[in-house]
Design brief:
single chain, about 80 residues, mainly alpha, 4 helices, flat, DUF6774
Length: about 80
């Protein structure tokens, strides 16, 4: 997918989500998606910093248990 196609897709989704909603509802959706994006960015940064390039590591271990998995501690 090209960059302009992605931008068009995201804009189209935003328009569909906003259709028929009040300004307050749209603002709430915006906050929700901003938080989602920030959280995904944090998880990606954490994974890059703590997990390196090991594709066998599961970031969900860190999310749900709050520590590195036992497998990584044993290394």
């Amino acid at each position: 997918m090209q960059s302009c196609e992605l931008v068009t897709l995201v804009s189209s989704i935003a328009c569909c989500l906003a259709q028929g909603r009040t300004a307050e509802e749209i603002a709430l959706l915006s906050c929700i998606f901003n938080q989602l994006g920030d959280t995904l960015e944090t998880l990606a940064a954490h994974q890059a910093l703590c997990c390196g390039n090991d594709k066998n590591d599961n970031i969900n271990d860190d999310i749900f248990f709050g520590f590195q998995s036992e497998r990584r501690r044993e290394r």
